[in-house]
Amino acid sequence: MIDFRNTNTVWASVLVETLHHLGLTTAIICPGSRSTPLAIAFAAHPKIAAIPVLDERSAAFFALGLARQSNLPVAIVCTSGTAGANFYPAVIEARESRVPLLVLTADRPPELRDCHAGQAIDQLKLYGHYPNWQAELAAPSLDIAMLRYLRQTLIYGWQKTLFPVPGVVHLNVPLRDPLPPLPEPDRALAIDRLRQTFDAEDFFAHCCPPSPQPPQPPLQRGGYGGVGTVGERFIPEQIFPQWQGKPGIIIAGPAQPSEPETYCQAIAQLAQTFDWPVLAEGLSPVRNYAAINPDLISTYDLILRNQNLAETLTPEIVVQIGELPISKQLRQWLETQNIRRFVIDPSDHNLDPLHGPTIHLTISVGQLAIAAANNPPNPFNSVNSAQAEYRQKWADAESQVREAIGQTFASINHIIEPKLAWVISQSLPIGTPLFIANSMPVRDVEYFWQPGNLQIRPFFNRGANGIDGTLSTALGIAHRQQPSVMLTGDLALLHDTNGFLLCPKFQGHLTIILINNNGGGIFEMLPVAQFDPPFEEFFATPQQVDFGQLFASYGVEHQLISSWEKLRQLLNPLPSQGIRVLELRCDRKFDAQWRKQTLLNLASILS
Predict the structure, then answer these.
(1) What is the full DSSP assignment across 32-96?
(2) What average pLDDT score do residues 428-440 get?
(3) What pTM, to 2 d.p., does this model score?
């Protein structure tokens, strides 16, 4: 358990054993010399899966994917110098999307800094304000009091990865020579005394995983004025009378809940209580549990493009669950109408980029649904004809647009990018984890993902909305899980091809659906596309890569897909092992024009 070969092995093995008792199951280890004691200790632990990954950026996003799937911290370890800087994009994403990560950066000891000792940079507060907490550990010591300090610091750091909001903890770990487990003759007696007196069972007795639910302050009763206070929790009884009997909508934004069905049921409870429709983002599990929410609206982006209808659909109340959806149309509509919005989210994050008349209720949607169920509306003031008529307007528009989308895509036999989200939504095995890359894929999912009951679990990196680590995150989500799928464009995949270095260690299956349109399709949708040059070279940035040869170099299976029927066959059932790429070649400019025109056409069918 504890490695008594030298000072560093004692320190590192106490560190690793403490983390094991706290609940750590996986550590991602990047190669390097200064981190030798940590790497050896993690690799030797029988109950922690230590996975070596060459590229630090890929390693960090792989860890992020693992942590997002498990909702538990994953440790990532690197050597000193610029290695830790390559963790930065994943640190930012983890903070913004609330994923627990424990970052351990090995470092030179203080006496070897600022003296050109080599591979030594300023690693203190390396990640700015993004970590939940950050500290530098003391240099390794054999003193039992210092080992207790190490243990307590790790306990505190572990808790800060999870509470009050999941995120990143960064511990900088200075280490002196000898880094390998070589004997230290001058410390042999001290090490032997420690070995004889160290009681491991007693030392780690109080190290245990924290409660799965953070301790909550008591619910506050009181006046309406205290509702918006950040960090305050309250019983929303005072709010419910304002909601009853009024036309309203529930907006279910992007979400990756650990229990998606329970999450969808909570939203359905609210919708039923107040007789409101649910506008569900394509990245919300609500669209994949459609039977739970019969008043589901999935085509709101297209509906709101009809200006006349959009005016008549203005509600009095908006309840926003989590973050706002991607839809620019929805955001503009909310901003223009200046509707009072109640943001439901247990975090202390500001979730209103529109800066409107919002009130943040710092509770979960589950807690709100329970409160609503325990405080049923007054039957004489709950549902009226105007409210029912309002809900029906949404339902009628949804039915018209959804039918038109289905007819449009059913008549298209050639490969176009926008149809892909519609096909995938109906083709995957039940419960499939699906990682959706940023840029155009998440938007096509928003526009065209068809509601159903396949319980597909959408995953995504929408914290910072970048394309960093796309492949590595997807591999982390799929590792040791049921067969999974990734939907990505060519540039997002090329940006993270080092993720394929994970192939030898990856366990499970990942199918990558690659949209190869030779460039950045999202830029074709923006006004800058009118200006060429420099558009094609500096924005679309086509890379002219032979993907078949690229994948062959990593030993990854590759198939070129030329029909929708072939794609459906390959998506259900999915293989159980390995990584494969299904490449669909698309015309970037044609797809962009088709998308623009079709979105307008679909909106115009509404009366």
Answers:
(1) -STTHHHHHHHHH-TTSEEEE-S-HHHHHHHHHHHHHHHSS-EEEEE-SGGGGGGGHHHHHHHHH
(2) 98
(3) 0.94
